[in-house]
Structure formats: structure tokens, C-alpha cells
Amino acid sequence: MIRTLDSDDIEQADLRGGSSPWFAAAKHPPRPTLTENLACDALIVGAGITGSLVAERLTRQGLDVVIVDREHPSRGSTAASTSMLLWEIDRPLVELTEFYGFERAARAYRASLDAVKGLTSLARDLKLPGNIRNKTSLYLAAGDTASDLLEEHRLRRRAGLPGDFLDHARLLEAYGMARAGAIVSPCAADADPLLLARGLLQLAVTRGARLFDAEATAFDAAGHAVVVGLDNGRNIEARSVVLATGYVMPDIVRSSVHTVSSSWAIATAPQPQNIWRNGALIWENARDYLYARTTPAGRIIIGGEDSAEIVEPDARDRLIPEKSRRLVQRLVALWPFAETEIDHRWAGTFDTTSDGLPLIGPVPGAKGVYAAYGYGGNGITFSYLAAQLIGDLIGGATSPLLDDFALDRDGGMAGH
């Protein structure tokens, strides 16, 4: 049975507005139009950061890989990412434990920690571009009390996760931030997402991967291989197909746990003299949290003001000036030492899941088709994890994480 791709006419530019610090002209490998039918071991649909990570992994396994993207690689949601490589998941360990039990929740957290470590090691070992820097993360109390963070820290210690709790006085002394408390943790990182994606994609092409300008419009998974129809009438036959289409989800993928939302961000002019201690990655203990990082040039990036109601591109982008003013106010409240000259303002459309976990693994009802959707604030971390899990799966291995991240899970949070 042929199933069509329902993209709702989403264009690449619809996924982001404004301009992030890394949205500069980037040279990518040539992307010719496909003029004949092809066969391969693995077809990757999507050439953003997720598709590039999957391509690196599968070419490392020696597979014959084809990558297709209907638009310029990494110029959609990847370009809007703030590229904070956190292992701490959008949903606290306490909350995940309430819904899934401690062992399953801790397994997800430990896998996320291993993913950040794995990605930073990969970048170092392969000498990838992307300015990846090891960082600590600072998880700040958003309210007047740090009692939630104390309980979170206790459960993290039980799970064997690293980090220290700082009360108000210690936080103020160490970081100059006047909050009720924080958890400071090692093993986070940050990066330039476009440079990183470009380096990964180029490496995959150097290993033999073929990259084409093409749009996948139909999938037939009924035979011994998956046949993917393209918009120009050509077909690609692959033993495995990996969907790395970000926020344009084919209609063969169904999940009840994901929703679309918008986020806004700003980047200041370079001010390396005004950066907080070690340029730690900052985020808050709140559902719609504020997040902040720095860049190698000394810019401060701060984002948030998320909305699940305002997702239409024009409406989202019209709010960039207003959201930017609010983010400046929140920056001053967080870090009064910052200069507030803003060089970049942007917005992006992102998917989140109700439990903060990614959608990774086999697509139900479509044999040989796999999903790699690293949604939420851990997007790139989860994208690396998706590449490893799917690579293992194609190679014949499995993992209990595939049940945890299954596309058809109930999310455990339907009543919340």
C-alpha cells in the first residue's frame, strides 16, 4: 500500500523567522537532482542535524546510504536551534518517575547523559567543526523556594547522575545569581548547529553517502524493501528508511504525545567581559522555562516565552519584536551585568512531547521504516541518541529504550 506524505505545505522558511548568529552562508556538499531510480541499504529523509548524525552513524557501519532533502540542508529548524546540548530532560526526573517508575525514568536520564558524552567525544575524535565546548549546566529555581530542586537532586543521586545542589547563598557566591537555589551539573555542551551538521554531512558524503535534492512523497513498505516515491516520479528502494524530517511529519507516523509550539530567542552583541561563570548553560525549573547560553565570541543568547497557541509562521514572526523586548527584560533580571544591545532576534517552530522524551524507533505498520525525532529542549542530544539506537537496530541489536521512546506509547501523562 502506498502512503502519501502529508506535509501541510510546510516550507523550510516556515520553521523559523529572523536570523540566528549561525545563520550565515554555509557551503554544503553538492545536492544534485535525482534523475534515475536508485537502490541502497539505507535512505535518510532529511539532511538537518538529525539526518546528518544518522548519516554519520550508518556510513560508519559501512552501509550504502542515500540522503534526500527537498530544501537546503540545515536551513530549517536546525538554523533556529540554540544548540544547548543538555542531558537533563525537559521533564524532571521526579516527574518522569511519577508516570513511568524510577527505573524507566532513570534509564532515560542516563541514556541522555551518555548521548551528550558520546556526541562530544565523536566531535573531538573526528575533529568536526561546530565549536563544541564542554559546559556545566545550571538548573535554576524559578520560584521563591528550591524545595522541588532538593527532591530532584536527591532522586538524581539515587540514579547515579552527577550534580550538586546550591542553596541561595552558595549560588549567589558562585554565580552571582539571586535565585532560591540551583542544581549545577557537569557534562553538558554547546555548539554551532549549522557548522556541526555541515561537518557531519560532509563526512558522510566523503565516506560514500549520496545526497540529492528530492522530496519523498510516498512510502510502500509492503515488500521485501521499502520503496520511496519522489516528487519527480523517481523511486528509491532501501532496506531501511530513516525519517529525520523534523517538524514535517509524514502521515505514516502517528503519535499522540507530540505537540507543536513556538519559541523565541535573542543574541546580544559580543561582550566576553560580561559573561557569567564559565558560560554555564542556564535553564529554569518551570514548564515554559527560560534558557540561556553564551557563544565563543561572547554573545549571550537567551530564549523562551514559548507558546503552543501561536504556531502559525506569520503570527509567530510578528511577535519577534515584542518577545525580544520581554527577553531583554528577563536577561536583565537574570544577569544585571549584561549589556542589552541585541544583534540577532529569531523565532522557531518546534515539536515537544508530553513526557519530554523523543520519538525514536520503528514506525508501527511500516516495516523497515524508522523514526528519528529528537523533540523538545534536548533536540540535538536526542538526535545523537536516535542515530545510535537506529544504527544498532539496523545492525541487529535492540534496547529497552526503544520501548521507552516508542512512537505509539501513551505518554503516561494523559491526565496532566
The percent of residues in helical segments reads 25-40%
**CATH architecture call of the largest domain:** 3-Layer(bba) Sandwich
Query: Whole-Å distance between the termini?
Result: 37 Å
Question: Which percent range describes the beta-strand content?
Answer: 25-35%
- CATH superfamily (homologous) name of the largest domain: FAD/NAD(P)-binding domain
Quick structural summary:
With 416 residues, this protein is α+β, with helices and mostly antiparallel strands.
Write a structural description.
There is one protein chain. The chain has 416 residues and is an alpha+beta fold. The chain has 2 domains: 2-81 and 194-255 and 356-404, FAD/NAD(P)-binding domain, CATH 3.50.50.60; 134-187 and 257-353, D-Amino Acid Oxidase, Chain A, domain 2 (2-Layer Sandwich). 30% of the residues lie in helices and 28% in strands. It contains 11 helices and 19 strands. The protein has helices at residues 49-60, 77-80, 93-100, 102-125, 147-158, 168-175, 193-206, 313-318, 320-334, 379-394, 401-404; strands spanning 2-4, 16-18, 38-45, 65-69, 84-85, 133-141, 164-167, 181-190, 210-213, 216-220, 226-230, 235-243, 258-268, 281-285, 291-294, 300-307, 342-353, 359-362, 369-373. Strands 2, 5, 6, 7, 8, 13, 14, 15, 16 and 17 form a 10-stranded mixed β-sheet that branches. Strands 1, 3, 4, 9, 10, 11, 12, 18 and 19 form a 9-stranded mixed β-sheet that branches. A hairpin with a 5-residue loop joins β10 (216-220) and β11 (226-230). α4 (102-125) crosses α10.
